[in-house]
Amino acid sequence: VACGRDPGAGAEPSALPAVKGEITVFAAASLTESFTQFGREFEAANPQAKVVFNFAGSAAIAAQINQGAPADVFAAAAPANVQTVVDAGNAAGPPTIFARNQLVIAVPKGNARGIAGLADLAKPGVKVALCAEQVPCGAAARQALAAARVRLTPVTLEQDVKATLSKVKLGEVDAALVYRTDALAAASDVDGIELAESAATANEYPIIALRGGPNPDGAQAFIAYVLSERAKAVLGEAGFQTP
To answer: What is the pTM of this model?
Structure first.
């Protein structure tokens, strides 16, 4: 995926032009907390604008867009999902990578099973949840497992990272491979175990404006906000890495 920089990239929110109207943003589930905060701050800076989010698995969102769902912005958890939108002619410009994310093992608080690495997930009796392979967190999980030469059969394959993490929070599994950011957001319920293998399988997050979106000016303004120094700080606090 060819990546570009939008006008205003890196600018402070106060320096960006004010916009109005509804801005529809389709975003990967792992962006829920950060983008929800972006929406509040963007609306505070643009009182005549309203940001409406649709959070789901990146593959499902790409399919919705290519089937004609009206939206202004798409932020995905992997370039491959954006590429399907670009290939279908539904992008208004080149994507820009704005963050990176790595996997961790999420376990119930206290880690009663003493899981320390990927090899422990293949031990007898350990129940593991993974994202489905077509979802970016699922593809990254399989790469990490392959790098560690670990073979396992998950008890469930979920359609986005939030659903995968919920299996740990509800006590239905002993562990799940999820993004570091999601484990941090659920720190009161789960512990996150860092993985050496995840550095090589970190996901890049691209964002694009969509062709035919109802609010093209709003789309460009929101993307500029996501690329601002303020947004980078919010993403860093959530556990994302800079691209």
So the answer is: 0.87
Per the listing, tokens 């392979």 go with 133
**pLDDT score recorded for residue 3:** 44
How high is the pLDDT of residue 198?
81
∠ Cα 105 159 36 (to 5°):
80
Give me the amino acid identity at 192: G
Query: Which stretches of the chain drop beneath a pLDDT of 70?
Result: 1-17
Q: Secondary structure of the chain in the HEC alphabet?
A: CCCCCCCCCCCCHHHCCCCCEEEEEEEEHHHHHHHHHHHHHHHHHCCCEEEEEEEECHHHHHHHHHCCCCCCEEECCCHHHHHHHHHCCCECCCCEEEEEECEEEEEECCCCCCCCCHHHHHCCCCCEEEECCCCHHHHHHHHHHHHCCCCCCCCEEECCHHHHHHHHHCCCCCEEEEEHHHHHHCCCCEEEEECHHHHHHCEEEEEEEECCCCCHHHHHHHHHHHCCHHHHHHHHHHCCECC
